[in-house]
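Board notes (copied after class):
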Amino acid sequence: MTGMRGMAVAAALCLAARAEAQDTLPPAPGLPQSVTARVVEDAAVLERVPVLLPEDHWAVRAVARLHGMGVADRYFPSQRAVPLSVVAAALRDAASRAAFDPFGHWTAVDWLRRLRAEFAAVSAEGIGMLPRQASVGVAREFGRLSPVEGYFDTRGVPAPVGGATRPQVRASTGFTLGGIGAAWAQGRYDERGLHVPRWDVAAAAGPIALSVGRQPVGYGHA
């Protein structure tokens, strides 16, 4: 169903054809051939990593913009949390169209280089690390009212409730195992203990990838 979202534990079978990287890309005016050759290598690595990118990831939005421009017209994911391999293949496809759309070529090349830099520790062979981040902060809530209790003459009046402050630590980390598997988690630790609202474990065999985890998926193309 279009627009369906699920924060519950879900299993998604992603059948994404991984296009083989081209040997060369036609260079845009002013762009050295060595740069486009490097882009091909970067795309080839990313296309073999079975990782889901959340729908609010900048690269997912970037490819959707290229699709709207008509540059990545073969980009049509089955869900809004898009596999990294599909995003990389769409960017490579857009970068290969220098003769038809030089602006789209430049844009796709730049975005693909940025994506490779973000996943610099990912490798198509061996163990690689996914982007990691950690933060320490304080969450504060205030402005609440107590619920109304009772009926008729015994019914109480809502009263202001004092604010609450809670220190917390947030972190996300993950790793890849060549082109056959990956795991990623995003968690929070506070006085109530450890909470992991998002996680994902993926395994791949050729063009088939099985992803099991908990995060917004959004089945149906937006």
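Comment from the instructor: Residues 187 and 196 are 4 Å apart (CA to CA). Residues 1-32 have pLDDT under 50 and may be disordered.
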